[in-house]
Specification:
Chain lengths: 251, 99
């Protein structure tokens, strides 16, 4: 990764798909409000099924003290990224944890797990991203991984939060995927180099505005880019935050 | 209206029960679920199915044998890998199979 204050060169041969925030699916269950980038549960859109192996990107808000009761999963890499508040997690592997901003949680559901997720607080919403990645191997032994990252390490740079490698920074999953998060001052530009040739990158704006390649993005917009080796992004507002998800384009 | 008949095969009993319950909540879908391949073959030989959902825990060689059996018995039947073990992707997988 390289930070510059000058405009980086842009590969203009890339392919892309733009998902504006307001075009996402929306479900309001009272205790849960969720925006779905891709088809999920009752939101079905044939044009919004996945970006490569990225199958679910849910932007969830759960009311005070409420949550998802015990429910199963299998054969999926499930990543939770809290944005505000505290999320309590319990699972059939014996884990009871609370994750909050700066933490990243990953579960390999493999041959099957049960878990629950609740807003730990009685006086504050919990906001978090729930991300599902198709695994590169079916029926793995279920596993749980969680890290706490230093938020200072993503100021004006991209901080790796997930990879396929247990030795690398962040959590790891059974897929050739890399996630990075960054928080930028207005005007700061960064380049991202694709880790594995053929992978694409899905950029999700958490806060503020960015220009990625030559495409302007606003809060909660999503942009998938592929057929390129690198991409450039420039923050257009102060404290702009972004999540980059590099994933294989084929299962 | 004819219901869509779905057979689910998976090795995890509680997930199997969850998937069957979710499918049977839909007016136009009905599902049967089994844990073992021999049970799956016996049911498949006795009833017509529109979709087979392959759940968790099925080894690669078992899946190959099941697919071969199902394709010979009922070539029209769609065989789909079910991911996620619950409600999130189930509807999408079934709707796509019906297209």
């Amino acid at each position: 990764m390289e930070n510059t204050n000058t405009a980086p060169s842009i590969d203009t041969n890339f392919k892309h798909v733009l998902h504006k925030a307001e075009t996402r699916g929306h479900a309001n269950h009272g205790w849960l409000e969720s925006y779905h980038t891709f088809s999920f549960a009752n939101y079905q859109n044939r044009e919004r099924m996945n970006f490569g192996v990225l199958r679910v990107l849910n932007d969830d808000r759960v009311n005070q003290g409420m949550g998802f009761g015990k429910h199963p999963h299998d054969n999926m890499e499930i990543i939770s990224i809290p944005l505000e508040g505290d999320l309590e997690h319990q699972d059939s592997m014996g884990n009871t944890t609370v994750i909050r901003e700066g933490d990243v949680q990953a579960m390999s559901a493999g041959t099957g797990i049960f878990h629950s997720e609740y807003n730990k607080n009685q006086d504050q919403l919990v906001k978090f991203l729930q991300i599902w990645i198709y695994p590169n191997k079916k029926n793995v032994t279920p596993r749980y991984d969680q890290v706490t990252l230093d938020l200072n390490d993503r100021h004006n740079k991209l901080q790796q939060v997930l990879s396929p490698n247990p030795e690398d920074e962040g959590v790891w999953i059974h897929q050739d995927a890399w996630f990075h998060m960054g928080k930028f001052d207005a005007g700061v530009a960064t380049q991202y180099q694709i880790k594995k040739p053929g992978n694409g990158v899905y950029i999700f704006v958490l806060k503020g505005d960015f220009t990625v390649q030559n495409i302007n993005l606003n809060q909660r917009d999503g942009l998938g880019i592929w057929d390129t080796d690198s991409l450039s992004l420039t923050a257009n507002s102060e404290g702009a935050e972004v999540l980059l998800m590099e994933v294989p384009m084929q299962l | 209206m004819k219901k869509v008949n779905i057979l689910y095969i998976g090795r995890h009993l509680e997930i199997l029960q969850t998937v069957i319950r979710l499918i049977n909540k839909q007016d136009n879908w009905q599902a049967q679920g089994v844990l073992k391949d021999e049970e799956a073959k016996a049911i498949f030989a006795a009833y017509n199915f529109d979709i087979v959902l392959l759940g968790c825990g099925i080894l690669e060689e078992e899946e190959t044998a099941l697919r071969s059996f199902f394709e010979k018995q009922q070539p029209h039947c769609r065989i789909v890998q079910h991911y996620g073990g619950g409600s999130g992707l189930l509807t999408s997988e079934i709707l796509l199979a019906l297209e």
